[in-house]
Design a protein that fits this description.
By secondary structure, this protein is an alpha+beta fold. Helix content is about 40%, strand content about 20%. The strands form eight sheets. It has a six-stranded mixed beta sheet, with helices on one face. A five-stranded mixed beta sheet has the order 11-17-16-13-14, with no helix packed on it. A five-stranded mixed beta sheet has the order 20-30-27-24-25, with no helix packed on it. Helix 14 crosses helix 17. The radius of gyration is 35 Å and the shape is globular. About 5% of the residues have low confidence.
């Protein structure tokens, strides 16, 4: 291999890495990928048990779990988990090159295959998917290469003169065992390469070395023996509902060839052109080798005749076996499984290009250039479409679950239909889960035990009136039969006890083709229906029950002359910052009055009426609100309000304000009140872990965050400022007697001119003195607000808004590290620059 070839290969590898890295993890994980991540995150025993009830072996999930353990945790799992597939996909390039050279293909062909594989949309697609296909393909190449290495080394290009067949048999066995533990479809490849081994030796007049062959496969069988009974059961009696339909031979060949050449996103209008290019190159690969059409630069670079049939068989014989099983027993084909056998196909395409280029007939080079240009252009179009066309976006579980988490409130139920798609919620749900299980297992006793539980209740549906063999009858299986009568009964019971239900709907036409779950939900009121991108029609639907009654303990108000509101606070009377307050409201429109759009603002107010937390929510959804409800119908609306970290201890009250969402104007009660009080509560102090990095560390207090919306002001304006403090230790000052006396600290907020002149200043104890620093716990977070009033004659210019701390008794300023040198300190920290415009 010369220096130029090495450079070409290096550039091809960099190009492949760049294409596979582009938009890696940008999209949501789709269902199969969420299964991968859920299992990889599960304990080992649970992982093995789950895969034993599924349709794939555990090898990939175990390796992905190890991969995730090696890397730091991240809130965005898509990139890290997909990078494992990218690594396996990158290994395909050098392995394909090695296999091509071992098959005695010219180095131009092997290098060309690497370039084509780098650009292949099929390879880019599966190198970005959190599934086992690139790993299975890499193990397949390793197995095939080592099995070929057991052949006599009489003519292998670049082969070492000293090769150990025993070592090759060992490596083949290891790769084969790993492949079988990765993907069941790997068995079709093992059959193929062993048939090719027998055929190759027979063509050379050589006998198969039965002893090492039998010993290797016996060891392979022993290595697979722990999983073999489960594998046999999963293959012969799948525990899942049928989801694949039979694909006739011609559509199967068409889809497979297009995917192998240009991925799965080639525009339909260009499919015929793509098939023509692929057919031309395959014919050129066959014809050039069979009829001596090559005009090699060096005679020893000519491709041997057996190489092309071997490569064709590697790719297409497993597909033929899949088709045969589909005809005789059950549909097995899906284009994604073809990828396992795809890598050598680029060697065939590259060989076709080289044969055309070296063709002795006039016009061969023109055809080679046109075919190469066609490959590049169509591959580019396919990649662009795969990345940008909404038709090829993954089902957006990330957006759907986040939408659901934002709208879900304590007391709501979540119904996942089809139930096995719950892995999407486990992947993206960022709140506690109190209970998850089958809808039919959620009995009244189970519901009673979960009253007041912290977290969501997730109910899963099964296959409605499906065969009892689903999931093999295992009560822990994701796939199971659910009698329609039991399902209807449970939903009716829930409607009598639950105000709202969220329907996470995907693949329900597989588990419920007659739509019985959807029909049962017509007894509820649909108020929200949102469809998310992807091919599976993923939807999140919100329902409220028709059987809701007003809580007898709720406070009641009449809003205007058309709306009755009842509400009750569902929270402990004593809370800490960081906890959540819940409230339950019911709204009822008067029979003789038209409704209107309405929103509610749930607010946490201190005794002075200042708002410290607020959550606004529209009433109803995109399908139903107060304008479309029937007269007298009760609309349930649970509300939720998070108490922000740092909310100071003290007495507060919870109130809700109804308002017009279009104008923002509050609606008043018949008594003229705009605020509907729900109850009083007390917030108590709680220490928190140290927040790092802090903006400034004044010793007793650390300034964690500080923000102000003021950027450009006029003279006389007030500059609002919100600060989050954290007590590092009890603020103390040694007395003359050597005792530690607690002291109070004062916050200093100033506006400094360019010459450090103080243009405006404010000195105040935190929270206006109602919670002095001498009472703070070590590590406690406290949020505070200030308003710095500026003089009316303040000159224009750019000023610095700064914050400092001083002792209340002697006005001594505390200092914080500042500047580039670690020993330099300042008595203030700069928050931002503010421009004054007269």
């Amino acid at each position: 291999m010369n220096q130029r070839t090495r450079l070409v290969l290096l550039l091809a590898l960099w190009l492949a890495f760049a294409l596979r890295l582009h938009q890696l993890g940008a999209q949501s994980l789709w269902y199969d990928e969420t299964v991968s991540l859920t299992l990889a995150r599960a304990p080992l025993g649970e992982l093995l048990a789950h895969t034993g009830r599924d349709i794939h072996p555990p090898g990939y999930y175990l390796l992905l779990a190890a991969w995730l353990q090696l890397l730091p945790a991240t809130p965005a799992p898509e990139f890290v988990s997909a990078f494992f597939s990218l690594v396996a996909g990158m290994l395909l390039l050098p392995l394909t090159f090695i296999l091509g050279r071992h098959a005695r293909l010219p180095i131009a062909v092997a290098a060309g295959a690497v370039i084509l594989q780098a650009l292949s949309p099929f390879h880019v697609w599966y190198s970005q998917e959190v599934r086992m296909y690139t790993l299975a393909a890499a193990l397949g190449l390793l197995a095939a290469w080592n099995l070929r290495r057991t052949l006599p080394a009489h003519a292998a290009a670049g082969a070492s003169p000293r090769r150990s067949p025993a070592r090759a048999w060992l490596y083949y066995g290891l790769a084969a065992a790993a492949g079988l533990y990765t993907l069941y479809y790997f068995v079709f490849l093992l059959l193929t390469i062993n048939l090719l081994l027998i055929a190759t030796r027979a063509g050379r007049g050589q006998h198969l070395p039965w002893r090492p062959w039998l010993l290797t496969h016996l060891a392979l069988l022993l290595a697979y023996a722990p999983w073999l009974p489960l594998a046999w059961r999963q293959i012969t009696n799948p525990p899942v509902p049928p989801w694949r339909s039979f694909t006739p031979l011609l559509p199967l060949l068409r889809e497979s060839l297009l995917a192998l050449g240009f991925g799965q996103a080639l525009p339909t209008a260009l499919a015929s052109l793509g098939l023509g290019i692929v057919a031309l190159l395959l014919l050129a690969a066959l014809a050039g080798t069979a009829h001596g059409g090559l005009r090699p630069l060096r005679r020893q670079d000519a491709a041997p005749a057996p190489a092309v049939p071997w490569l064709l068989a590697y790719t297409f014989l497993p597909v033929a076996l899949i088709y045969l099983v589909s005809v005789l027993r059950t549909p097995l084909y899906h284009v994604r499984y073809v990828f396992t056998y795809a890598p050598p196909f680029t060697l065939l395409l590259a060989l076709g290009l080289v044969n055309l280029w070296r063709w002795r007939v006039r016009g061969g080079r023109i055809l080679a250039v046109l075919a190469c240009a066609g490959l590049l252009v169509l591959s580019t179009l396919s990649l662009q479409r795969a990345w940008r066309d909404p038709d090829f976006r993954a089902d957006d579980h990330r957006a759907a679950v986040r939408f659901l988490a934002d709208r879900w409130r304590p007391g709501d139920l979540i119904l996942v239909n089809a139930g096995y798609a719950y892995t999407a919620l486990l992947t993206y749900w960022d709140q506690p889960i109190a209970w998850r299980g089958r809808l039919t297992d959620f009995t009244p006793a189970a519901a009673a035990s979960l009253i007041g539980a912290n977290g969501a209740i997730i109910l899963q549906t099964g296959s409605v009136d499906g065969p009892a063999s689903l999931g093999w009858g295992d009560p822990a299986a994701d796939f199971y039969a659910m009698p329609a009568a039991s399902m209807v009964s449970r939903l009716q019971a829930l409607a009598a006890a639950t105000p709202r239900l969220w329907h996470y709907r995907i693949y329900d036409t597989v588990t419920d083709p007659a739509g019985r779950v959807r029909n049962a939900l017509t007894d509820w009121r649909l108020f929200e229906d949102d469809v998310f991108s992807g091919e599976a029609n993923l939807r999140v639907q919100g329902f409220w029950s028709r059987q809701i009654a007003v809580d007898r303990t709720a406070a009641r108000w009449q809003v205007g002359n058309w709306l009755q509101v009842a509400g009750v606070m569902q929270a402990a009377p004593v809370l800490t910052a960081g906890q959540t307050i819940s409230a339950s409201l019911t709204l009822q429109r008067a029979a003789d009055q038209p409704g209107q759009a309405l929103a509610l603002s749930l607010r946490l107010l201190d005794q002075a009426g200042e708002v410290w937390a607020q959550a606004d929510e529209p009433v109803g959804g995109n399908q139903r609100d107060l304008r479309s409800v029937e007269a007298g119908e009760i609309l349930p609306l649970p509300l939720r309000l998070a108490i922000p970290p740092g909310t100071a201890p003290g007495a507060y009250r919870l109130a809700v304000i109804p308002y017009d969402p279009a104008s923002g104007q509050p609606l008043t009660t018949d008594a003229g009140a705009a605020s509907l009080p729900l109850g009083d509560l007390t917030i108590v102090a709680r220490a928190q872990p140290t927040q790092r990095p802090a903006l400034a560390d004044f010793g007793p207090l650390a300034l964690v965050t500080a923000s102000s919306p003021a950027t450009i002001i006029s003279p006389g304006d007030a500059i609002p400022l919100e600060i989050l403090w954290q007590a590092g230790q009890a603020p103390v000052r040694p007395s003359l007697a050597g005792l530690a006396d607690l002291v109070n600290l004062v916050v200093v907020v100033q506006l400094l001119a360019a010459d450090d002149r103080v243009a405006a200043s404010l000195e105040a104890q935190p929270l206006a003195g109602r919670y002095p620093t001498s009472q703070w716990l070590a590590g406690e977070l406290v949020r505070d607000r200030y308003a710095l009033h500026t003089p009316h004659d303040l000159p224009g210019g750019v000023y610095r808004l700064v914050v400092g701390i001083q002792r209340a008794d002697d006005s001594q300023r505390l200092r914080t590290p500042c500047g580039m040198l670690p020993w330099t300190t300042c008595d203030f920290t700069v928050i931002k620059n503010v421009e004054v415009r007269p």
